[in-house]
Amino acid sequence: MSKEQAISAAAAGTFAIGGDLTVNRLGYGAMRITGQGIWGPPKDKAGAIATLRRAVELGVNLIDTADSYGPGTSESLIAEALYPYPAGLVIATKGGWERPGPGQWTHNAGPKHLAKALEGSLQRLRLKRIDVYQLHAPDNAVSFEASVEALAKLREQGKIRHVALSNVTLDHIERARKIVPIVSVQNRYSFADRESDYIVDYCQKNSLGFFPWAPLGPGQQAHDALKKVANNLGATPLQVALAWLLKRSKVILPIPGTSSVKHVEENIAAAGLGLPDAAYKELAAISHSPVSLRG
């Protein structure tokens, strides 16, 4: 059996985002292909492009990015590496944050900014329509309804296929769904950071996709637990963490990120890792819920 046959994101099963975009349940997060501080170009541009291409070769057909990654760098690299895009590839991007400098993030989810941000994403990604466009985070300086209404308007104009949310509460989701159909939610979530447990359950009940970011979980206790299970299974800690997420719910679509071909291969191999029930429950018993935003 060849390496390509042995490792495939398809082993994770599929999920239909919005009911019409069927993707393999192990995707790729494209934040880390930028420079230090998620700012500017990567040190190894050729490596970043090779990583994107390798992910797609191994069955990844969901790539998550944002206009703020770089800013603009991640989206531009995706297009450079993969355009013209293979059939069925879904690129989910985000708008609503600005970048004054390396490691710095500021909110701007005003309607005018979102419209401008979307145009920039369309240009960099060389698309006429974004399949999944996510509000990166609610902006306390702007009415949440105004932000969502702006995305609903852009959807009506045919520039967005599906609207989605990131870094939100259940209240945000329910308020948004009164304005426009929501297809997915992206929050920080892992076996050891389950503050969004109730949101995962809500997404499962309502057939919404859930994109978890920071899958390794915080704290040394969490990492020690992962190492123990990984050693027993002959896997890596991150593979175990991803396998736990895949087992947690059929609506979860992990989007691990890396700028390394070797690591993207390791991550995608997690799609075929069967996590025993006992190991799943052992990891589920560890929980820590920090308050943080990114993704």
Structure in words:
It contains eleven helices and eleven strands. With 295 residues, the chain is an alpha/beta fold. The chain has a single domain, classed as TIM Barrel (Alpha-Beta Barrel). Helix 2 crosses helix 3, helix 2 runs parallel beside helix 10 and helix 8 packs across helix 9. The protein is globular, with a radius of gyration of 18 Å. The protein starts with a helix and ends in an 11-residue tail after the last helix.
Tag the structure with descriptive keywords:
295 residues; alpha/beta; TIM Barrel; 7-stranded parallel beta sheet; two-stranded antiparallel sheet; disordered N terminus
Give a nutshell description of this structure.
By secondary structure, this protein is of the alpha/beta class. It has 11 helices and 11 strands.
Write the CATH architecture name: Alpha-Beta Barrel
Total domain count = 1
Q: CATH fold name, please?
A: TIM Barrel
Taking the sheet with the most strands, its summary is: 7 strands, parallel
Radius of gyration: 18 Å
Number of strands: 11
